[in-house]
Amino acid sequence: MVRSHFTKQTDYNVMEHTSTHRVYLCGGPRCSARGSVALQQQLDFAVWEQELDTAVEIILSGCQDRCDQGPNMTVWPGPYRYIGLTRPAITRIVAQHLRDGTPVESLLAATPQNPELENKEQRSENA
Ligand code: FES
Q: What is the mean pLDDT of each run of 10 residues along the chain (127 residues)?
């Protein structure tokens, strides 16, 4: 049985003591319209499949201010801001980042520190 990992949490600064990562999947209106709610099931399943139930907290967040790039999610420790999510992208992020500890750079948003990023996979699909 797959249990829901989504929790309603009031204290966003405290991770469960067994957790290694916290994931905020955007549940804002634009990301929801672009499929983030459907991705919630994929994220839940991928975390369960990788046996990360106790290591990963998943929280459905409000808007993350990158609406045009959604669906989005942010992983802590970080922040690592993933944009343009798809079901395969979720599976890959869970295995490579949350399980193995290596962020999937090709799916990250650009940052002032690293402007070369910006979900290169999404860009190449749209080219
Ligand atoms: S609704 Fe997701 S970033 Fe705004």
A: 45 68 96 94 96 95 95 95 96 97 93 67 55
User: What is the domain extent for residue 94?
Assistant: 21-126
35 lines ligand 1 (CB under 6 A): no
Please report which residue ranges of 1-127 form alpha helices under DSSP H. Answer: 29-33, 36-49, 87-93, 120-126
Please report whether residue 16 resides in a domain: no
CATH value at residue 102: 3.40.30.10
Which residues 6+ apart lie within 8 Å of 120 measured at CB? 106
With a 6 Å cutoff on the Cβ, whether 63 touches ligand 1 is: yes
Asked if the structure places residue 15 within a domain, the reply is: no
Distance from residue 26's CA to the centre of ligand 1 (Å): 6
| Number of domains forming the structure of the chain | 1
Cβ–ligand 1 contact at 28 (below 6 Å): yes
Residue 103 placed within a domain: yes
**Token pair belonging to 116:** 């070369």
Atom of ligand 1 nearest to the CA of 69: 3
Predicted structure pTM score: 0.80
